[in-house]
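Summary for the steering committee. The consortium agreed at its last meeting that each partner would contribute one worked example illustrating the joint modelling workflow. Our contribution is presented below. We chose a case with several input lines so that the handling of multiple components could be demonstrated. No manual editing was applied between input and output; the record is shown as generated.
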Amino acid sequence: MEPLAARSTEPPRGSAAGLSLRGIAKSFGRTRVLDGVDLEIRPGEFLTLVGPSGCGKSTLLRVIAGLEPQDAGSVVIGGRAVDELPPPERDVAMVFQSYALYPHMTVAANIASPLELRRLSLAERLPLLRLLSPRRRRVMREIMAEVRAMAAQLELTGLLDRRPSQLSGGQRQRVALGRAMVRRPAAFLMDEPLSNLDAKLRVHMRTELAELHARLGATFVYVTHDQVEAMTMSDRVALMEAGKILQLGSPAELYDTPADLTVARFIGSPPINLLTATAAPDGCVRIAGLALQAPAGGAVTVGIRPEALRIARAEAPGLLAARLRRAENLGAEWLLHAETAEGTPLAIRLTAAEHAAVAPIGERLALRAEPAGVHVFGADGRRLALRATAELAA
Amino acid sequence: MRRTRQTSEARAGAGFALPAFLLILVLLLAPLAALLALSVTDYRLGALTVRLVGLDHYAALFGDEVFQRSLRNTFLYVALVLPGAVFGGLGVALLVHARTRTRGFYEVAYFLPVTATLVAMATVWQFMLHPSLGPVSALLAWLGFGQVDLLNDPSLALGTLALIGLWQVIGFNMVLFLAGLSAIPRELYEAAALDGARFGPDRFLRVTWPMLGPTTMFVTITSTITAFKVFDTVVVLTRGGPLGSTETLLYVLYLEGFQYFRTGYAAAMTVVLLVFLVLLSILQARVIERKVHYA
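What follows is the complete predicted structure of the assembly.
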């Protein structure tokens, strides 16, 4: 008799699968959560879905996992459409924000769980009945050997007999990772896995996750609302808002050429400085010592990264006037908080050397912008392609 | 300086604890002491003289055939009711929990016997089980069991009472299990699904049953105590008969204390009943507690 669980064919070990999402739509009641999402995730890629809460990123992850059926569209994992398949047969593993470890099982049993469920038949898993199977013993020995190897890899060896309640947050996190990794799935889905950790551990786990990804070469789909996590770990980032992907690209692309005002605002810490301006009928925008040539006239929003704002030696017409409110010493650099005459807050990032020349708090500053960190957005929030940028005398 | 502050804090603490302590003393400990005191006397309700008899009552209990029989009947009754009360309650809760629109209806339906007074409902059962008028007897006859008098057959009466007891307690346990089921994080089921749990038994054994551990423990202990104290149905339906086959501990105790007015003897029985209940609770708590609390 063929064991029930052996039906699902395990993929060749260590093979990373690509994922394609085609036109995924999902509504809860009358709320549209996903609005036709298309996304190609390459094999072995670390792709982060980032966005404010309620943007649909977690729902998209749950659709991929099969925990939530989509209303329209198709999910393809490793070239196989999985829309009709329940979660166990999609060959993806998920790490939950709460870790979702089985509280009554030891660390070893938690990590062994996916292997038991896949390699033993239902009869071999049932209490009492399982004692009748001579095969079970052998399979369990193999499974425990793999569990110990996984534990060694995650530095959990000494904790195998503990229960989750006896572990720290970081250790639980590693157990959850172990449970996901042990069966070598085609893709890992991670739903805000670091948000329950304290700040220091979060920074540490960022490095560990990035290294883990490099070592496994597996496909990671990572959901977070924290742009720092998105920027530091990902190969590519998909920034979502209101059920749509606003921009998909490498962290550098999102930072250097934000396609949308929302993207510019979301990526970067401290956030980008936003100033409203009016383009002359010929499209010329004069701001912070720059003359920008926009495609047409009208109201625009100019975004200037904090590190693109520089203090001019003297006030001059065309420069941005502001008053210094506060200066924060971050050690290697300084963060200045200023305010324009209209009351718009500005953040300015300076090196310690640059800061030495800055006027005291409460004084007036004259600011000019460096063109590379300046982005102009139209009234619809989309990025405007600039025809020319000229620096005025500073 | 430090010393006076400590003593004043201690005094304030004692002051806060005093009301609770007094209530426990008056409502729990004093009656218990009175019970123990009565159990070593030959006090009869209304008697003018009281004589100490020491442990005579307890010794007599060992030779009292009625008491021994009531003890056996009670344990048998508990053994009959308990498995159904726990697993039946769990089963019903699992079924009702899976309903969405009709859930409210089933909850009310199963909970009705709990809200109904058992004495009142017992008269309904009396009619239902009546050998010539009752629909249950008619059904049994139609099924080919012949003329069965469930309440007057010595071999069936206790089992019949157990079924009525089960009917009453199952709805209450269902509500407790429903609360336990609602408290299980949905993510555990999702994690199990991604781990590869595709069958109901896997989800039940991996998540539901272990996570319901504390609830199951509570239900088991309360159901045991409820079953141990079976009384109303005995009084209304069988009065201990036929042939003493439904004489239970509480019923015999009631006869001794309130029909024969042998208060001292009844007090000794009560002490024995209490000892059983406490021992059972401790045993279950010790055995089960170690297995159900994971935090």
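The longest helix of chain B spans residues 2-38. Chain B has a mean pLDDT of 85.
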